[in-house]
Design goal:
Elements lengths: L1 E6 L8 H8 L3 H6 L1 H7 L7 H10 L6 H18 L6 H10 L2 E7 L3 H7 L9 E6 L13 H9 L2 E10 L2 H10 L2 E5 L14 E3 L2 H10 L5
């Protein structure tokens, strides 16, 4: 049975949540109007399909393809501004050295994931990548299906898997999969409160220490 480590992307590998807050804080209001944007609430961890569904239920009538075109353009701008999280390369090196299989599960569109992967020296080492948004057969986080699939594809078990997440919906999905779950809080927007993880890490160097402490257990 393999050891597996599965990354979330936004707010974990890349500091995109803060970039959205800084460079796209009014995007939802401008796209949907203030009333619908308020009903959508905090979009952290949501897929764009989920956001569209909530908006449509509340009177948003834009064609979905047009909506995605606008969102993709804004996302490209955001990812051009977002920094790769300091220390994530060191974490990946430590994982590979310790024999972990790596996966990536993101609520973002595959187009968005592909903005980030070329910036990573270890991107080629992801053995399974899921865009939950682009997989209509999978329910969004906090449903654990995307994580359970990735664990299986990496030929691991929940007991030999660690998941690194930042959003509460992602943390819940990770926990429901049965994997050991690290709540990563370095890139959270101010005021966001995490809950439900097995342990929390303020930065990637703390994540490396957590991994090292589990070496014997795995």
């Amino acid at each position: 049975m393999n050891k597996a480590f599965i990354f979330d992307m936004d707010g974990v590998i890349v500091n995109s949540e803060q970039a959205w807050s800084k460079h796209g804080s009014n995007f939802l209001k401008e796209l949907f109007g203030e009333e619908i944007a308020k009903k959508i609430g905090d979009p952290i961890g949501m897929t764009v399909n989920t956001i569209y569904g909530i908006a449509a239920q509340n009177g948003f009538s834009m064609d979905k393809n047009k909506y995605l075109e606008i969102y993709d353009k804004q996302a490209a701008h955001i990812y051009s501004k977002a920094n790769i999280t300091e220390g994530v390369e060191k974490l990946a090196q430590a994982l590979l050295k310790s024999g972990y299989k790596m996966g990536l599960v993101s609520s973002s569109r595959l187009k968005w994931i592909n903005h980030v992967l070329p910036k990573l020296s270890f991107g080629k080492h992801f053995e399974h990548i899921i865009s939950v948004n682009d997989r209509p057969d999978l329910k969004p986080k906090p449903n654990p299906g995307s994580y359970l699939e990735t664990i299986a594809k990496l030929e691991a078990s929940p007991k030999t898997t660690i998941i690194l997440e930042d959003s509460n919906s992602g943390i819940k999905a990770a926990k429901l999969s049965g994997a050991f779950t690290i709540g990563f809080n370095q890139n959270l927007i101010p005021g966001y409160k995490q809950n439900g993880a097995d342990i929390y890490a303020n930065n990637m160097f703390e994540v490396v220490k957590i991994i090292q402490s589990f070496r014997v257990s795995f």
